[in-house]
């Protein structure tokens, strides 16, 4: 399986757990969306195309700030949740489509194109060129994410659980401490299309029950990449480890990142 096939397979998998995704995935703090409005020069009524809107976790805060959001979501289950959450906003809409295949038609141009926790899933051949084409002159690309980090006061669980990752061949390094996660900057391939105007970071924490912690692990692409058998083994290991500790609540530290870049055309 090549990289393109793996990317398409993994990104489609989020739809299988839409409700768990909505319940457990971290949402960016409100101040990140205030930064979007201020640094992006956006005002109520401006139109935003949101790539991979998922269950609307970023769509709703943008709509609450008066932006007219059109979410484009590949998964029908995720899109259904997003539509439900956005039902109270007359100017919001959700389209079920892969972003690469979506034809905006008369809806374009947009004042902003936003992507939260999803830009890396987009075909690299259009990852930056298509947003640039959708934007009005001077419009902005907003790229946001919530990165897992290791709490500065991490207890033994956060270190011991790495044994469970290693036992099943989970790829990737353990999360770094929050101070090691810096702002994200546009890559070289986007520099001819956009001028970066802001890059901010906001650490925040989320409290999870033991069950919800396992549930959020199940929604992650790295877990899905293990395949059914190894992912079940991994989640079972973590669940048993938490049970042995009395199923405590866990505080997980994230760093919300937002980068804003203005369209050059």
Verbal overview:
The chain is of the alpha/beta class. The chain has one domain (3-150, 175-204, 254-263): Rossmann fold, CATH 3.40.50.150. It is 35% helix and 25% strand. It has 11 helices and 7 strands. The protein has a 7-stranded mixed beta sheet with strand order 3-2-1-4-5-7-6. Helix 6 links the parallel strand 4 (110-116) and strand 5 (135-149). Helix 2 (18-24) packs across helix 9 and helix 9 (210-218) runs antiparallel to helix 11 (228-244). The radius of gyration is 19 Å and the shape is globular. 35% of the residues are buried.
In short:
The protein has helices at residues 3-13, 18-24, 30-40, 59-64, 76-85, 129-134, 156-160, 162-167, 210-218, 221-224, 228-244; strands at residues 47-51, 68-73, 93-96, 110-116, 135-149, 194-208, 250-263. The chain is 35% helix and 25% strand.
Q: Round the Cα radius of gyration to an integer and report it.
A: 19 Å
Most strands sheet: 7 strands, mixed
Number of strands: 7
Low-confidence stretches: none
Q: Features of this protein?
A:
alpha/beta; 35% helix; 25% strand; Rossmann fold; 11 helices
Chain-wise SSE layout:
Layout: H1 3-13, H2 18-24, H3 30-40, E1 47-51, H4 59-64, E2 68-73, H5 76-85, E3 93-96, E4 110-116, H6 129-134, E5 135-149, H7 156-160, H8 162-167, E6 194-208, H9 210-218, H10 221-224, H11 228-244, E7 250-263
Parallel strand pairs: 1-2, 1-4, 2-3, 4-5
Antiparallel strand pairs: 5-7, 6-7
Helix pairs in contact: 2-9, 9-11
């Amino acid at each position: 399986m090549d990289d393109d096939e793996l990317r398409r397979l993994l990104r489609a998998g989020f739809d299988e757990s839409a409700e768990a995704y909505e319940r457990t995935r971290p949402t960016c703090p409100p101040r990140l969306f205030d930064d979007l409005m201020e640094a992006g020069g956006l005002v109520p009524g401006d139109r935003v195309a949101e790539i991979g809107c998922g269950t609307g976790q970023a769509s709703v805060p943008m709509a609450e700030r008066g932006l007219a959001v059109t979410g484009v979501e590949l998964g029908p289950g995720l899109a259904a949740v997003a539509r439900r959450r956005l039902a109270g906003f007359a100017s919001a809409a959700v389209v079920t489509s892969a972003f690469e295949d979506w034809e905006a038609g008369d809806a374009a141009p947009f004042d902003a194109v936003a992507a939260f926790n999803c830009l890396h899933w987009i075909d690299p051949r259009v990852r930056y060129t298509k947003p640039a084409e959708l934007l009005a002159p001077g419009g902005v690309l907003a790229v946001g994410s919530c990165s897992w980090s290791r709490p500065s006061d991490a207890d033994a669980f956060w270190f011991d659980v790495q044994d469970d990752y290693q036992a099943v061949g989970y790829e990737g390094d353990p999360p770094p401490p929050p101070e090691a996660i810096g702002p994200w900057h546009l890559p070289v391939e986007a520099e001819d299309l956009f001028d970066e105007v802001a890059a901010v970071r906001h650490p925040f924490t989320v409290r999870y029950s033991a069950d919800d912690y396992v549930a959020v692990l199940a929604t992650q692409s790295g877990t899905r990449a293990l395949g059914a058998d190894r992912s079940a083994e991994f989640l079972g290991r973590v669940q048993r480890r938490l049970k042995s500790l009395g199923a405590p609540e866990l505080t997980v530290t994230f760093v919300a990142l937002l980068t804003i870049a203005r369209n050059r055309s």
